[in-house]
Amino acid sequence: MQNETDKLIKDLRLVAQDAEDLIRATAGEVNEKTKQARARLVQTLEKAKETAQELQVKVGEKAKVADEVIREHPYESMGVAFGLGLLLGVIVNRGRD
């Protein structure tokens, strides 16, 4: 889960960088449609940056909580992980029949 979130955040940052490059590249355009499109892109880009930042903070908080729970209850955590693995194994094997 953490790796997927990190990849999503990295991808969002790449998109943001590409959008910023596009905004700079069209800075000299005087066409009204281009100006409007740039304005919308700037707004969307700012919202995306805020969302990525919020997501990163939330993921960090959730990871800390999960770490604390696992450290406080290591055997129970192993039991839950084993049970989930067993359940997933049964489901996957049933799907193959």
- The separation of the N and C termini measures 29 Å
Low-confidence stretches: none
Total of DSSP H or I helical runs spanning 4+ residues? 3
Number-wise, the strands total 0
User: What is the ordering of alpha helices and beta strands?
Assistant: HHH
Shape: elongated
- How many domains would you count in the coordinates? 1
Main β-sheet: number of strands, strand sense, barrel status? Answer: none
Q: How large a portion of the residues is in β-strands, by DSSP E?
A: under 5%
What helical percentage do the residues reach?
A: over 70%
> Could you say which structural class the secondary elements and strand pairing correspond to?
mainly alpha
Using only CA atoms, what is the Rg? 22 Å
On the 0 to 100 scale, the average pLDDT is 84
